[in-house]
Amino acid sequence: MKTEELIPNAQEARVLKMLRALANPARFRIVLVLAERKDCTSGQLAELLPLAQSSLFDHLAALREAGVVQVSSDGPNPNRYYCLDPSAIDFLTAYLSGLGQQARSWKELVKVAQKERTMEIRDATREDAAAIAHIYNQGIEDRSATLETQLRTAEERAEWLAARSSRHPVLVALDQSGAVVGWASLNSFNPRPAYDYVVDFSVYVARERRGQGIGDALLGALEERARLLGYHKMVLAAFPGNAPGMRLYERHEFQMVGIYHEQGMLDNKWVDVVLMEKLLH
Ligand SMILES: CC(C)(COP(=O)(O)OP(=O)(O)OC[C@H]1O[C@@H](n2cnc3c(N)ncnc32)[C@H](O)[C@@H]1OP(=O)(O)O)[C@@H](O)C(=O)NCCC(=O)NCCS
């Protein structure tokens, strides 16, 4: 069994000292007040915080010792001004944010980089109809995405696009070359006015481009649009065995509402359908 004590390096020691000093509700409040007021005398702090003078001085001393708080050197004790050391707070923030960056998985970093470098998402136009039909047909043929079985043509999708209202937009994701690699739409859930604030949606990514963060980006953009359009809730129906779809919805914090068992007949087999929802407000 190893019994050696871990010796922190200088940077770790500074972080630990600051965290220890801050891990106290009274000191935390002192820091919040100093951040807001820029500087204060101990008398002003005592007026603002329910602390006895002696414990206030102890806390200030601990914060000074940790390098979080500075004090003006001139003047007698009651007129000294206390303020935060901004560079100390910046140091702590930079250290923790560096840890956050490291903690993100490599896969996620690659995904974010790919998205930032290559992704454009915009409203679909008539010119996108052929690509949308192609990608939709891949999803239909896969038999893991939809109960739809009828393949579509570019003309049919062009009519579908033309018939959509501004409350039911279609978005497309483009790669660096401008090719459509995925699409997503907000669909009417139910025409009754009482359901005006609920919207159904679809998201489809080209087979060869799946697993690269495109579905994630499309769903993020769709959710943003749904909020802008004033929807209260997004809902979906999916196959429980659609692992990428379920993962995508989980990631976007959709909650399971229930399962319709043996809801559809696809290729002579019963399929279950999962219902999910996400409240937007
Ligand atoms: C479902 C679909 C839209 C997801 O889009 P995507 O671009 O492939 O997915 P992303 O790369 O954005 O990944 C989303 C999540 O699914 C996970 N995922 C992707 N492919 C996966 C796979 N084959 N198996 C398991 N999980 C997978 C990703 O790891 C990611 O989860 P994470 O962020 O926790 O790592 C896409 O796969 C697709 O178009 N499928 C066919 C059509 C379809 O099923 N549409 C949904 C109908 S309900």
Element string (H = helix, E = strand): HHEHHEEHHEHHEEEHEHEE
CATH architecture of the largest domain: 3-Layer(aba) Sandwich
Which CATH first-tier class of the largest domain would you pick?
Alpha Beta
**Cα Rg:** 28 Å
Biggest sheet, spatial arrangement of strands: 4-5-6-7-8-10-9
Instruction: Quickly give the structural class.
Output: alpha+beta
- Helix percentage: 40-55%
Describe the structure.
The structure is a single chain. By secondary structure, the chain is of the alpha+beta class. The protein has two domains: 10-103, Arc Repressor Mutant, subunit A (Orthogonal Bundle), CATH 1.10.10.10; 106-279, Gcn5-related N-acetyltransferase (GNAT) (Aminopeptidase, 3-Layer(aba) Sandwich). It is built from ten helices and ten strands. It has a seven-stranded mixed sheet with strand order 4-5-6-7-8-10-9. β9 (255-266) and β10 form a beta hairpin. α7 (129-142) crosses α8 (154-162). The two termini are 53 Å apart. The relative contact order is 0.08. The mean pLDDT is 91. Bound molecules: coenzyme A. Coenzyme A is lined by residues 139, 142, 144-145, 203-205, 210-216, 238, 242-245, 247-248, 251.
